[in-house]
């Protein structure tokens, strides 16, 4: 018999897992990682041969996409990928960033999908779904259980580790020719030159922090769904159990 168990902590973990996954996915696809210095589009020739300068704007550059303003386009800003193939991404560091972020996002999306079903299924193959999902998000081994190992607690980071590695490698690619077109000749690894950080970078950082919070909440969600109150409700024959 399927028991639908809903608690505040399990629902909070589910919602945060979904927010973390979508936040990282949106940031990865965005072109607003770097905001270039203000510039004016190329001059446009008027009907009498005179030139009219375009309005100043700030182009943006993402990991594989960009937004620029072309004077001959009436719709203004043109956004799209500058890299058609993986090898065309601005630098090797950004290629590594893409791999690590994609791997982390894939795991987060899998956890977000599984978390929806934890209301009905709390274990799989006798393993707690909450613990498995928490491990994927980035949780630690319980050090108190390592009685025979006289070493510091080893922290196993999966999705969180991938995201951190991706974000650490990303600024190393700022010295590429592509970035210098947007940020000036002063741009160098870990120095953005004339560029400023866009919202996508901060969203990715926030999603990474939220990933580790979700890993912590996964343990709390398991405790809430296996509490004595839940067991009492199950023994009473209830199929829908809602607890605060």
TrEMBL record:
Transmembrane segments: 12-31, 99-121, 155-172, 199-219
Localisation: Membrane
Main location: membrane
Keywords: Membrane, Transmembrane, Transmembrane helix
A Pfam family that the UniProt record links to this protein: L_HMGIC_fpl
Keyword Transmembrane recorded: yes
InterPro entries: LHFPL (IPR019372)
Membrane topology designation: Multi-pass membrane protein
A single GO cellular-component term on record: membrane
Name used for this protein in its record: Lipoma HMGIC fusion partner-like 2 protein
Species whose genome carries this gene: Dissostichus mawsoni
